[in-house]
Amino acid sequence: MRFSGKLFQRVIAVVGAAGLFSLGGASASAQDETSFQQYLTTVRAKAVAQGITPATIQAVFPSLTLNERVIELDRGQPGGSSNGPIPSYAPYYARHVDAARINRGRAAYQRLRGKLASIERQTGVPESIMVSIWGNETAYGAVTGGFDLPRALATLAYEGRRRDLFEREFLATLKLMDMGFSRQTLQGSWAGATGGPQFLPSVYLRLGKDGDGDGRADIWNSDADVLASIGNYLVNAGWRPNVPWGIPVDVPAGLNIGALANKTVSPRCPRVHERHSAWHTMKEWRQMGLVPERGYWPGDDVLATLLEPDGPGKTAYLLTHNYRVILDYNCSNFYALTVGLLADEVAQ
Length: 348
What we know:
Layout: H1 5-15, H2 17-49, H3 54-60, H4 68-75, H5 90-96, H6 99-111, H7 113-123, H8 127-138, E1 147-148, H9 149-159, H10 163-178, E2 187-188, H11 201-207, H12 223-236, E3 246-250, H13 270-273, E4 280-281, H14 282-287, E5 291-292, E6 303-307, E7 316-319, H15 321-329, H16 333-346
Antiparallel strand pairs: 1-2, 3-5, 3-7, 4-6, 6-7
Helix pairs in contact: 1-2, 4-9, 6-8, 6-16, 7-12, 8-12, 8-16, 9-10, 15-16
Organism: Stakelama flava
Protein name: Lytic murein transglycosylase
Keywords: Signal
């Protein structure tokens, strides 16, 4: 309810602003907390059924309280409308492939070359791609989030908008504690992404990878484990060795882009994929008059789609299957382009 200025003054005179609003807010918060604790009894039963140890259950459940900031952040997310205009990529590129991020990436790349080379041999994923994703996700481990995962995920599950997802992630977090990771270690974003790769807990359980040879995949404290886990994720998503993510190209002014339109609809994040052309081989693109900005072509038989993120007359990109694998990590053209372009800079 919204009050006009005069009505608001009369309400204050009668009951006092502090009494009206603080008592009402406190009552609502108390009701939410009571409902939250009641909800936790059902989750506790599921934890027992999944074999979570009594020690972890007792350490976590009595300490959980509702995190209203997490609910606020979740409800503030975009509603998913796909009707707004798509902004230009150039400003995003300038912010995310800047000198500081490039230099820090090159330093990390050189510092970890021994481990990275081994991971690349095992996975087929270029070292620079792993480093670039690490840089995009957490600024090379500098910014990993400060929310307590059990509390944040229990709150999101209680809220109910995506209960099945967040209940599963909350229970996965308890399993991480059973594996010996402390609650102090299990910090992350308000939405539950954690560690250097910003994995959800269930993703860690599936794809966390030991990269330093100590027998434990510690994506919170071991840079080598972070990079090995990123590489393992990309392999699981279908990365193809010896295929570039894509190349920047100049498109001839007379090319009929409309005739190259993709006529299929992706079942996943369709607005991202609808900006891509149909697939053609690199040889076919070359025959259409496209020119690589860096002077080289991938193999003639490599398939690619065309994306013009800033419109006609600006740098365009031929994007391979491996670009789609990067989209599996984060389904955003701006994100995936930035990963590829930052990787190219880091590897120089």
